[in-house]
Amino acid sequence: MGNTSSMLTQYDIEDVQNHCNNRFSQREIVALYERFCALDRSGKGYISSDEFMSVPEFAVNPLSQRLLAMLEGLNFKEFAGVLSAFSPSATIEEKLSFIFKVYDIRNNGKVSREDIIRVLCDLSGNFLTDEQRQAVVTQALEESGYSKDDSLTPEDFLKVKLKPKCYSWKGRLEDGGGSAR
Amino acid sequence: MEEDSRKGDVFPGASLGGKNSNSRGMRNPLLDGVLERVQGQDSSLFKPSPSEINMYQRHLDEVLAESGPKADVNRNLLRDILDISPTLSEAASAIVDDSFTRCFKSNSPEPWNWNIYLFPLWIVGVITRYCFLFPIRLVLLALGWIIFLGLFIPIHFTMKNAKLRQKLERGLVEFLCSVFVASWTGVIRYHGPRPSRRPKQVFVANHTSMIDFIVLEQMTAFAAIAQKHPGWVGLLQTTVLESLGCIWFNRLEAKDRATVAKKLKDHVEDPESNPLLIFPEGTCVNNEYTVMFKKGAFELDCTVCPIAVKYNKIFVDAFWNSKKQSFTMHLLRLMTAWAVVCDVWYLEPQTLRPGESSIEFAERVRDMIASRAGIKKVPWDGYLKYYRPSVKLTEKKQQKFAESVLRRLEDNNPSEVPRVA
Fold it and tell me: Where does the record place the EF-hand domain (chain A) (predicted)?
């Protein structure tokens, strides 16, 4: 894939669409590609973490480092694949699986108590003490019937009936980027 | 899974483009306290602009409102703890599009020379521009420079009568700027009463390229405050432009700020100095958006005269993307285009209203300029082009989250929450 969206062929678009389980329309993929090229200022084919962090709205997000780990160095197809979990048409399982991956940094298929505490740490910074974090997680686990040392599996995430909120993207992907007058 | 449309307002790009919602209702006593704390603790040059804090305050108020006590019996602490989707969604949204990057994007015009009879026409146009117009313009520019230097140098070094010398130097600089404008065939329409020389007034304008200065200088010899540039531009700055009373700063030096603020104050109070022109955005923006105005220009206790500048992209895009090309290349691009078309509006002078803070004043003036020029406003600090956002913004989010967690803990068991010592 070249440097401008005119270089994305129909074949490329369909390839990416399949990779994303059809969560993006073809128009959205073209718009996303323009965005990818805009962020990848040096045209290397992937976006470096510096380039991600130059988006102020992203840089102030408490989970930016975790997302960076999942997104940097990816080519466009993989990038679109990761972001497809955020598409409004993604299924609950896909969204939960993404959230699970964010927690499971050691990638061993289980989210342990420490993993939860680590994410809580990112989200709360210095405004919660360690004891408070431990207390919250213990209480949360016990309230839902897990012992405080259990590890959670993706099925547990489903059981807890997480309802991931997904802000509407339509305005952003189609209108943003800006070649439209 | 789509939320109701109210949630859409949480995203700056989506809601603030085109709406002035950010300027209303900024009188928030809570916010003033926040600003004081931030300004007191963070002494570096690049604080988050208050509107950024305001924007995040709104985000977080929404999150807080949701996490307040509900009648819903199905509240499940584990579910709420594990559900990081709002934060993730915000981050993903920012990756997909964000209002800050949009400000610095040069939108390349649609190519029109794509078929068999337009293409030769276009070739003829290119040849005319590069082989006829460009050399003529270069010659014109060179002649203009020669005349200018030939008159300026003697006058600057030999004339003793300060008043007359200043008057002549001003006239010469205006002449040189007209030559510059002619060298890229500037078609500039000025609207509104021309700036008058009066004490205690400053002029502010939106900023697209360094040629803004030339376009405005052609009409009135302003003294500008700008970033010191390297190369031939820097040389010009320290020689010719300083005689007009221009002030230079280096945005990469935090200590510069106090000295520059003092110079500004001195300049404005001197009745003999040229009217001061300030670009409060602090950086070049692509003329479709304006970024936050820095409040420095609005705290000088003077009348502020807004100037709106809007370039017509019909022949060339006048946005200077300083990260992508040097000023010389930018000038060359302008000189090989047919023309640079531009509108300048001199707007009604404004003063600080009673009870208005300088930040609100800056926003009000930005409103005026943005609506006159037909460009959108964005709540970001232009210096984020060079620096990461302050950690304090992330900390605000973390603090709100921590507070909501603690509240949940208390709701569940009021006596058992471990307290911070």
Answer: 27-62, 91-126
Pairing label, strands B303-312, B340-346: antiparallel
Instruction: Look at residues B146, B144, B292 and name the one whose alpha carbon lies nearest to residue B218.
Output: B144
* HSE-up of residue B349 (Cα within 13 Å, Cβ side): 14
Q: Where are the alpha helices (DSSP H) in B68-117?
A: 77-82, 85-96, 99-102
The token duo for B404 is: 């909501």
Contact B173, B200 (CB under 8 A): no
- Kindly state whether B388 is in contact with chain A, defined as any CB-CB distance less than 8 angstroms: yes
| CB-based contact A76:A16 (threshold 8 Å) | yes
Positive or negative: CA dihedral B366, B368, B373, B376: positive
Is residue A10 less than 8 Å (CB to CB) from chain B? no
Q: How many angstroms separate the CA atoms of B285 and B317, rounded?
A: 12
How far is the alpha carbon of A145 from chain B, nearest alpha carbon, in Å?
A: 10
Three state DSSP letters for chain A: CCCCHHHCCHHHHHHHHHHCCCCCCHHHHHHHHHHHHHHCCCCCCCCCHHHHHCCHHHHCCCCHHHHHHHHCCCCHHHHHHHHHHHCCCCCHHHHHHHHHHHHCCCCCCCECHHHHHHHHHHHHHHHCCHHHHHHHHHHHHHHCCCCCCCCECHHHHHHCCCCCCCCCCHHHHHHCCCCCC
- Indicate the range of A45-59, B19-33, B143-157, B396-410 predicted with least confidence: B19-33
Residues of B in contact with A174 (CB under 8 A): none
**Cβ count near B271 (within 10 Å):** 9
Any chain B CB within 8 A of the CB of A158? no
Contact A99 B405 (CB under 8 A): no
- Span B163-212, pLDDT tens digits: 888 888 888 889 999 999 999 889 999 999 988 888 888 999 999 988 89
In angstroms, what separates the C-alpha of B115 from chain A's closest C-alpha? 17
C-beta of residue B337 within 8 angstroms of C-beta of residue B315: yes
What's the alpha-carbon Rg for chain A, to the nearest Å?
Answer: 19
Residue A96 near residue A127, CB atoms below 8 Å: no
Sheet holding B223-227, edge to edge: B186-191, B340-346, B303-312, B201-205, B276-278, B223-227, B247-249
Q: With an 8 Å Cβ cutoff, are B82 and A176 in contact?
A: no
| Coil vs helix vs strand at B55 | helix
DSSP state of B337: S
Q: What is the ipTM of this complex?
A: 0.85
Cα dist from B330 to A180, B78, B94, B240, whole Å:
24, 57, 30, 21
- Residues from chain B contacting residue A132 (CB–CB below 8 Å): 405-406, 409, 417-418, 420
Please tell me the distance from the alpha carbon of residue A74 to that of residue A81, in angstroms, as a whole number.
Answer: 10
pTM score? 0.73
- Structure-block tokens of residue A29: 């993929």
Contact check, Cβ <8 Å, A167/B89: yes
Distance CA(A92)–CA(A146), nearest Å, equals 23
pLDDT tens-digit readout, B60-111: 555 555 544 444 455 677 777 788 888 888 888 888 888 888 888 877 777 7
